[in-house]
Design brief:
15 strands; Rossmann fold; 11 helices; globular
């Protein structure tokens, strides 16, 4: 069992072994709070760029749906007449200077998520360890009139106008503790300071019948300070996450999700922060029980040996970006693009906020 799995079982499950780190929590809390206070005290923090900056991030470790949310925002903003660009860190990539990511870029050079976003969004995208430098490089494209930061909630050197915090619909805040005892990068109270808290949910029927109060209670389940967040329901947005079909890794062929029902045996492959959500989506789509799950660490660097050669394989779109560069013999390898359908109320609210920042007519 990997160290990542051990931590996740403690943060989001019943294991309590990370409580051995409790003595250092006061120091962690002090350092996290100091970083936030320094940002708020900086009177020049809103003067870095002259276009709106939207941060899509989280306060918890693990997959929360940032990438599909970024793609959904790109579509909404383009429809509203904006020309958005994206900045990202480029996880696992040495990018001390800005790098422009294109549809032909390699995941090994630019990171899996940036390449996926560049290909799906058809928008300019720049990666850099310094997101401020990334934004300035992005704005050399004079068409860009709005910036979306993929992650970067805690990158306080970067100014921002709108913050969208992603929270996993099933795992919520975990045990509600700061790292390393829990999965939180910042205290749960940080949710009260962002513009929106977005939770992606795959069950449309549940979304239709669930009130914001019920959704909030589920997301904060297990967090002892739940009474402190009574005003959070005004920020909460629940949106359905859906899969439209499968795409063949080698040929680009599109297939209905019904193809899953024909897989009497198959291998599921994922190197993401929350593979259980990927599995849940496939099971909802009709995947039979004869599957094996092969989970790797987030941003895993795949090799040919990681992919089965004699059975159908289904993977995430992010992993497909890396595996497409491998010389796979198996031609029965498919990946699952997912989409977010944003509520009309949220879209209207967001566009109003963007308009107030940009002054766009």
């Amino acid at each position: 069992m990997s160290l990542e799995t051990l931590f996740n079982k403690a943060w989001y499950g019943k294991s309590k072994w990370t409580q051995v780190f409790m003595p250092i929590l006061p120091l962690v809390s002090h350092l996290v709070g100091k970083k936030r206070r320094q940002y708020l005290a900086d009177s020049n923090r809103h003067n870095q760029v002259n276009v709106p900056v939207i941060v899509v991030g989280n306060i918890s470790i693990g997959g929360t749906g940032k990438s599909p949310m970024v793609l959904a925002l790109i579509e909404v903003l383009k429809s509203a007449g904006y020309y958005p660009g994206i900045v990202s860190r480029g996880y696992g990539v040495d990018a001390p200077e800005p790098i422009l990511v294109t549809e032909s870029s390699l995941a090994s050079e630019c990171g899996d998520e940036p390449v996926m976003l560049a290909r799906r969004s058809a928008s300019p995208l720049v990666i850099c360890q310094n997101r401020v430098a990334a934004i300035h490089a992005l704005l050399k494209d004079k068409r860009v009139d709005l910036v979306i930061s993929d992650d970067g909630m805690q990158h306080y050197a970067m100014s921002r106008d709108i913050e969208i915090l992603m929270l996993d619909a099933k795992r919520g805040l975990g045990n509600g503790r700061l790292l390393p005892v829990g999965p939180l990068r910042e205290p749960a109270s940080r949710m009260l300071e962002v513009d929106y808290v977005v939770s992606l949910i795959s069950d449309q029927n549940k979304l239709d019948r669930e009130s914001k109060k019920q959704a909030l209670g589920r997301l904060l389940l297990g967090y002892q300070g739940i009474d402190d967040f009574r005003g959070l329901d005004s920020k909460l947005v629940t949106a359905p996450l859906s899969a439209k079909g499968l795409i063949n890794l080698k040929t680009g062929e599109h297939a209905s999700l019904d193809l899953l029902k024909s897989f009497n045996e198959c291998e599921l492959v994922a190197g993401i922060g929350n593979p259980e959500r990927f599995l849940h989506t496939l099971l909802e789509a009709g995947l039979p029980s004869g599957y094996t799950a092969n989970w790797f660490g987030d941003h895993h660097k795949f090799s040919v040996e990681n992919i089965a050669q004699n059975v159908p394989v289904v993977m995430t779109e992010k992993d497909a970006v890396k595996c497409k560069d491998l010389n796979l013999v198996n031609e029965n390898v498919w990946y699952l693009p997912i989409e977010v359908r944003l509520p009309v109320e949220f879209i209207e609210s967001l566009l109003t906020k963007v308009l107030s920042v940009s002054g766009k007519e």
